[in-house]
Design brief:
Elements (H helix, E strand, L loop, with lengths): L7 H7 L1 H9 L3 E2 L2 E2 L8 H6 L2 E6 L1 H18 L2 E6 H4 L10 E7 L5 H12 L3 E6 L5 H4 L3 E4 L12 H21 L4 H12 L1 H10 L2 H10 L4 E6 L2 H17 L2 E6 L16 E6 L5 H12 L4 E7 L3 H5 L4 E5 L7 H19 L18
Parallel strand pairs: 3-4, 3-5, 5-6, 6-7, 8-9, 8-10, 10-11, 11-12
Antiparallel strand pairs: 1-2
Helix pairs in contact: 2-8, 2-10, 4-8, 4-12, 8-9, 8-15, 10-15, 11-15, 12-15
Bound molecules: 5-amino-5-deoxy-1-O-phosphono-D-mannitol (M6R).
5-amino-5-deoxy-1-O-phosphono-D-mannitol binds next to α4.
Length: 365
């Protein structure tokens, strides 16, 4: 049932190209977006004053990416919350606002109750769910299914890539309806998204350098992930994946926040992982790398091929991803982070598929 792989987690990472295609292809017909089960009209979008995104864990991290892209493409303000906070804080929400709920299982209790809270306050609910007919899917006004198939490993991998794919599709649909992006801009983003699956295939082919790096560093006590903008959102997911399955303490930080405190923790040998896929912020991240290197950090950078040479001078290892556009890079750049967590856990002898203290679906508080 593991299809020849040692763990479900690896099998599920290998499924990423296929499930992204399954989530993407049926929704783009002859160049037009067809979001089945989402019946939001141009008029609905024009009336929208705000969007909330609510989820837990990995789905929440997908939501953080969603905030950046929806705000960029639709010029609507987006608030992202973890469900357990949202449901208890008497959130300010009106019937002119939309709530996007993200959940792989569709059964996460906090997320379901957050949905009910938003609904009670009059918000329309769009959900991005993987399990057909799940409680969250059934309680929503509109559903965009991710076609990731069953995810068995506790650590979520392929579901995240498909949640992001769904969020890009929604952002593009809303942006086109609202007129904040042109058809040509949308087409360019769609063609960048179309390149992602083969990009992931290339990353999976070339995973040995990650494995070797993990072999050298699995004794790390604490690891920092730093990034800016979409890479910050990605860092959060990379950090969660690592701590969840390898039990190594780790934190994700916005590059620009380091000097406001956390840099005090960087000492000789501290491992710092830097996703650097945002061209507009590349130089800012190079400065961050200099700051941590000056304090003795070991730096692993993850970037597009086009930046490899430049970064080799300032870092200890550069992992490259294919030359994809900055806006869609998280869908692709998460895979090396998942592989990194996987190999660190494997080196440490951890139970990769069933990490301690965790359940696949959290249906209790
Ligand atoms: O089924 P859901 O997407 O609602 O689950 C949310 C989280 O429990 C889940 O993503 C969790 O954080 C994963 N174990 C992370 O790998």
């Amino acid at each position: 049932e593991k299809g020849g792989f040692e763990h479900f987690m690896m099998k599920e990472m290998y499924e990423e190209p296929k499930v992204i295609r399954d989530t993407f292809n049926p929704r783009v017909k002859n160049g037009e977006l067809v979001l089945d089960n989402i019946n939001i009209t141009k008029e609905d979008i024009e009336k929208l004053q705000k969007i909330h995104i609510v989820a837990c864990g990995t789905a929440y991290h997908a939501g953080v990416v969603g905030k950046y892209i929806i705000e960029k493409l639709c010029r609507i303000s987006v608030e992202v919350d973890v469900a357990s906070e949202f449901r208890y804080r008497d959130p300010l929400i009106t019937d002119k606002e939309l709530t996007i709920i993200i959940s792989q299982s569709g059964e996460t209790l906090d997320t379901l109750f957050a949905l009910r809270e938003a609904k009670k306050k009059g918000s329309r609910i769009v959900s991005i769910v993987n399990v057909v007919g799940s409680s969250i899917a059934r309680s929503s006004d509109d559903v965009l299914y991710t076609w990731a198939g069953p995810e068995i490993a506790v650590a979520s991998t392929k579901a995240y890539n498909t949640q992001l794919t769904a969020l890009y599709l929604i952002a593009l649909d809303f942006g086109l309806k609202k007129g904040t992006i042109s058809k040509q801009e949308a087409d360019e983003i769609l063609s960048s998204l179309r390149e992602i699956p083969s990009g992931i295939e290339a990353i999976l082919e070339d995973k040995e350098s990650i494995q070797k790096f993990a072999h050298r560093h699995y004794n790390a006590k604490s690891i920092f992930f730093i990034g800016r903008s979409l890479d910050y959102a990605l860092s959060m997911e990379g950090s969660l994946k690592l701590k969840e399955i390898s039990y190594i303490h780790s934190e994700a930080y916005a590059g620009g926040e380091l000097k406001h405190g956390t840099i005090a923790l960087i000492e000789k040998g501290t491992l710092v992982v830097c996703p650097m896929t945002q061209d507009a912020l590349f130089d800012k991240m190079v400065s961050n790398i200099r700051e941590v290197k000056a304090r003795g950090a070991v730096v692993l950078a993850i970037t597009q091929n086009r930046h490899k040479e430049e970064l080799e001078k300032t870092t200890d290892l550069v992992l490259t991803i294919p030359d994809v556009d900055s806006l869609v890079s998280p869908v692709l750049a998460v895979t090396p982070l998942q592989l990194f967590a996987y190999y660190m856990a494997l080196e440490k002898g951890c139970d990769v598929d069933k990490p301690r203290n965790l359940a696949k679906s959290v249906t209790v508080e």
